Amino acid sequence: MQSFKKAILSTLAVFLIVLLGSVGIIEILMNSEYYHCCDKRNIESQSGKIDLIVSGSSNAMNAFIPRMLDERLQLNSYNLCGPAMESHAKYLLLKQTAKDNDIAIAVLDMNYDDMSISPGAVEGNMYAIPRINSFFDRVSFFFTVVDGDAMEPLIGNYLYDGSYVAFSRTLGESSILGTIGNKSNVDYSAKGFREGIYPENKKSIAFSESDIISHYNTSQINLFGKNFERNDKYVKEYITYCKENNIRCIISVTPFSDSHIWVYDNWDDYKTYLENLSEEFGCEFYDFNLLKNRYMLFSDSSTFVDGTHLNRAGAEKFTPQFCEIINSVDSGKDVSDLFYSSYEEMKKDSPYMKYYLTHKNDK
Amino acid sequence: MHMTITSFAFILFVFLLIIIYYFVPKKLQWVILLVFSIFFYVLSSKWGIIYILVTASSIYGAAIIIENNSKKTKDYIKENKTSLSKEERTKYNKQNKKRRKLILVSTIILNIAILCTLKYSHFAIDQLNNVLSLIGIGALENDFTWLVPLGLSFYTFQAIGYISDVYWNKVPAQRNYLKMLLFISFFPQVTQGPISEYKQLSSELFKEHYFTYENYSRGMQRMVWGFFKKMVISNMLAPYVNDIFANYNNYIGITCFVGIIAHSIQLYADFSGYMDIMCGICEALNIRLAENFKRPFFSKSISEFWRRWHITLGKWVKTYIYYPLCLSKGLMTISKKSNKRFGKFVADCITTTIALTVVWFIIGFWHGASWGYIVWGLLMGLIIIVSNWLEPFFKRVRIILHMRNSNFFWKCFRILRTCLLFSFIEVIPEVGNLSNGLGLIQRVFTNLSLPTNIRDVLTIMDRTDRIFYLLLFASIILLFVVSLIQRKKQIRSYYNKIPLVPRIVIISLFVLFILVLGLKGNSAGGFMYAKF
Fold first, then answer.
1. ipTM of this predicted complex?
2. Contact A159 B212 (CB under 8 A)
């Protein structure tokens, strides 16, 4: 019995040392702003001044330029988006930011791929968790939101990256690789920080002629299912929180490329879901894919990094467009004429459609 | 839910087993092992359990029938010693031996048939389709899928070993079906071996075990060492090796060479790491599992290498294929005739050549259903065969050059030669297919460009997290140093002399090191030998 007791105690001792060591390493990472969208010091420096936030994933992270929002809407904005961020994290960050700021407007970007993100997915939570301020909130988020299968890879990433930070940077020193493009009151110049991480490459992602024929309406975007339901739940929590705290909630959809839209045939199903959502909660909804001037504003050859993300040039066109719509609505104008009523209608004006109709029966 | 061995769930599983194992009455310990083994197997392979049950049932029944028949024959002859003539006794003996052989062969064929159907049917149909296409007949359907149970190749061999041992009267038949099931499905060995002999493993599994702190702590130490090898060395080398294997045409010869060596280290760390984890678990349970590795990269010949690498496979093949083949009527006849004509040495070489060719064909094919593996096996066999034939020549050369085998430089040369031979042959089946494997080797010798900087060689390892790759190199050196030390004495015996508290701190920091470097790449996949 003595030796069994000794075994238990020594095993527990090892476990405790490993646990404390791991927590220590992960806390170093959590406080280091190592990931490009971690922004503790920046957001704290803006504390009390923020009155517009944008919640979303990488699409909106790339599309909304806060400085442009500020100039055109006369507000102090902050982009709370993060890569692959699922709805629970968006909701949590909204509440956290609203505690220290009197937020007037919350823009909730609702691209379809956000809704299919698994709460257990590693990437989104990997970036979101370090942005949660309190240690206990982070631990609670980890154990309630993160899927069982995702826990190990997440801990693995944090331990690896945390050790890297501990080895290669002194604790407290900025270890920023970049932030999410918010204007900053923190001096990052020594690190060569440029505002924003918007990719500037003007890579053409336009379809070739053969792609236009072979890719028209060949797939369906994945809607509904377990992940959709879970995200839907926290989208509703988000909107409800806004209503209860007198925050104007605007549901938006940032633009996708023509080629991306071209491939799928059920966009209107998702649009119907968003329209129903906005009607149920009485909030505004603007799908910027359906702007009637989209084909003049955005081009596959110059404003997109890939099918679903605007590049810098695209963001510089989108943000003012967004502001114009909001300003028009605020001054009492009806903006519905500025949008197509459906994706089906929109596709008819697509630059690909003319070629498709002419050549679809060619051998 | 699928439980991988390098997961927190598996660690919990092991600790739970250890606690329950030592708290139950000693007579029920093997039952606990069986319950945990079945649970592990069902989680890992779900309906694959059916195949294990079929195998266990077939050898269980066959062994009892064989043993009963053998006993019955002996008893009958004993009782009727005076009433039966010698010819009658011999005839009766022969008849029953034939019956026992029939049962043995049928059972082996049944289990081999299951193995071949599940593992080799796609390969067989592919080859048949190649032939059919040559003669202008349409191809057969080949996109069906089988459920291939975990450890199929390993437990099938183990089962065949058991039934053969019963037939040869080496071991008594196991009369308890559940004990037989435990022998086949024992979770530390079902995935990747070792391929245990019934006599050795049963003596360990079914006896009573008492907890000792020493066994527990040594077992845990070995487990941690196994996780270090697998999660740090093997997992971290994997992306580098995979990148070179997939894109070898984009790299210079030196890079391909480094990739080949890295692959050998990765394979060794992966396979022996798994063995250390499993042996460590067994040690904590006071069960001795057969060793599968004995510092193979210090071997001085390919023959010796295969006595130190995957030891139990070599032993199994020797006992159940090689020796029976050598002692078979056909080969004995060839041996006698060759002896008369060419002398003893040549006769022995001819016999062993035939036997080794068969053995290495089987070993190659057992590893994988592809021409790459067959070529791999035959190449290994060829080297051993040629060494046998040329042994007198090499002996003469050594005498002329006054070179003793104990000469340090000669030993180093032989060790290096063996490592390189193994490493180069080993990549043949691993690079997708046979032609890619040969292409990779060819590139080493045909692209002799020098690297312009270290990035040309380190490729994806030369990144911002360079510091971790330096730790990886340090880990590989540590592995080598530990292997060197363990030629004389187990490293754990030095480690266990340290007082308890510093020992706990050291192992905790080592575990933390493994988690930091190893957990990130852990999602990359399971163990390399599990695919066999």
1. 0.86
2. no
